[in-house]
Write a structure and sequence with these properties.
The protein has 463 residues and is α/β, with parallel strands linked by helices. Helices cover 30% and strands 22% of the residues. The structure holds zinc ion.
Length: 463
């Protein structure tokens, strides 16, 4: 029963191989690097690619010009490259305007970015919304540059084109949707970018094979401008999103972290908290209006129930936004553990429901129904305890997640107990919940809808 919600064997290694394959591509918020990346993902899941023209207004923003880069370098008087884009794409400030000129080191210096506190690492810098140019290099390399004249070249174009994003929708039995969103705009950065993409792809592959009550919508987008663009173009779909997760930084060796939605008490918040608590060391953070695309999904005009699942959060690991966020930093076991947690959260979102005990006056005799061992005097094992918890708290008000949290038991065990009790005729969907569909579960609209329902969109107010 729980198989679709467990990673397949070998998923971690397969995700790591994808991270390794995509790592060298120079991505940005627009351009061929993003397209090449998304086309590779299309070989794994049937992503639809969308192209939005530069200049398109999206709420308070404008889709930027498209950036493409062929080569970049700084060469010394002998013509040998002292900074070379071909060696590492972080060497160029992402979105740099083209440049070709000779200049002294003193003139060049304001365009050079280093990390004096981490002198061996190349920083990651961008200039998306200001037309500028620059290079990034290790502080040690900068200190080794002799005075003199240098030739500087950034062979790039910044011209009207398109913003590209990928979207995959797996329809469900109801119109309700779960949103998964990951950013794909960073160049050679493995944990902050590629790990989230790999987990999203494997999540989509796993869920595509399972019966689904919710439609599952996956977005592979450039950070910030991508979610702003999608939200501006998809008012109808936005209204169907009941729960969501931003997926990022899911491959580092740190423990799992969940950042709550702006609402703070949405079903996805309670589901993620329970799954992470069950999984050992973890951290739960309240919403702050900074971070990844949850900033947009949780902006007050939408206030969607979208949280953010990471391992060590952005900015809190020393490798963050440097050349040390590489394929060695990302681990197969961490990727697989992150996938397992995302799937476990989805299991709760798909199957949480309230039931009523049809035999509420004292305990029903479970042994007679083949549900309970007959040896007295020993504490009942997990499954039998789960039966007792489900029977006692199935008063139509407590959902299976409420019971799992209260009993400190895994949700799949509580769910399995509820299935067994339904099979024995001892449990029924709570009155007023939707009829159970095959493979699905009844819901408790009165209690769960206000917690997880999306607010109405003010249509046309901003677009
Ligand atoms: Zn980042």
């Amino acid at each position: 029963m729980t198989a679709p919600y467990r990673p397949e064997a070998g998923s971690g290694a397969a995700m790591h191989a994808l991270v390794t394959e995509l790592y060298p591509i120079c991505r940005s918020i627009t351009g061929e690097g993003m397209r090449t990346t998304l086309r590779r993902l299309q070989q794994l899941v049937p992503l639809e690619l969308h192209e939005v023209p530069s200049g398109t207004r999206v709420f308070d923003w404008t889709v930027p010009k498209e950036w493409n880069i062929r080569d970049a370098w700084v060469a010394d008087a002998d013509g040998s490259r002292v900074i070379d884009f071909r060696e590492h794409n972080l060497h160029v400030v992402n979105y740099s305007v083209p440049v070709r000129r000779r200049m002294t080191l003193a003139e060049l210096r304001p365009h050079l970015h280093t990390l004096p506190a981490q002198p061996d690492l190349i920083p990651y810098r961008t200039t998306y919304y200001a037309e500028a140019w620059g290079f990034c290099l290790s502080h040690r390399a900068l200190e080794a540059l002799p005075e003199g004249e240098y030739e500087v070249c950034i062979d790039a174009t910044l011209e009207p084109g398109h913003l590209t994003y990928g979207e995959l929708f797996l329809p469900g039995e109801t119109p309700d949707e779960i949103l998964f969103s990951c950013h794909c705009c960073h160049p050679s950065l493995a944990n902050d970018n590629l790990a989230g993409m790999a987990v999203a792809v494997w999540l989509a592959r796993r869920l595509s094979a399972a019966p689904r009550r919710h439609g599952m919508r996956f977005l592979f987008i450039p950070g910030a401008i991508g979610s702003i663009t999608w939200l501006a173009r998809n008012a109808e779909a936005v209204g169907r999103i009941r729960h969501g997760l931003v997926l990022s930084c899911l491959g580092d060796p740190g423990h799992s972290t969940y950042k709550r939605t702006r609402r703070g008490d949405a079903l996805v918040d309670r589901a993620a908290a329970h799954i992470l608590r069950q999984g050992g060391e973890h951290e739960l953070l309240d919403f702050v209006p900074y971070g990844y695309d949850e900033r947009q999904y949780c902006s007050p005009g939408f206030n969607l129930a979208v949280g953010c699942l990471t391992r060590t959060p952005n900015g809190r690991f020393p490798e963050y936004h440097t050349s040390a966020d590489n394929v060695e930093f990302v681990r197969s076991d961490a990727l697989e553990d992150s996938l397992a947690k995302a799937l476990a959260i989805v299991e709760v979102l798909e199957h949480d429901a309230a039931f009523v005990n049809l035999n509420p006056h004292c305990e029903p005799q479970l042994g007679r129904r083949g549900l309970y061992g007959n040896t007295g005097g020993i504490s009942p094992p997990g499954f039998e305890m789960a039966l007792l918890w489900v029977l006692n708290y199935s008063d139509g008000d407590h959902t299976l997640l409420d019971i799992a949290v209260r009993a400190e038991m895994p949700f799949p065990l509580i769910r399995r107990a509820a299935e067994a009790l339904r099979g024995a005729g001892l449990l029924a969907p709570a009155p007023g919940t939707e009829a159970a569909t095959e493979g699905g579960a009844p819901r408790r609209p009165a209690a769960s809808a206000p917690r997880s329902g999306a607010p109405p969109l003010v249509s046309g107010a901003n677009s």
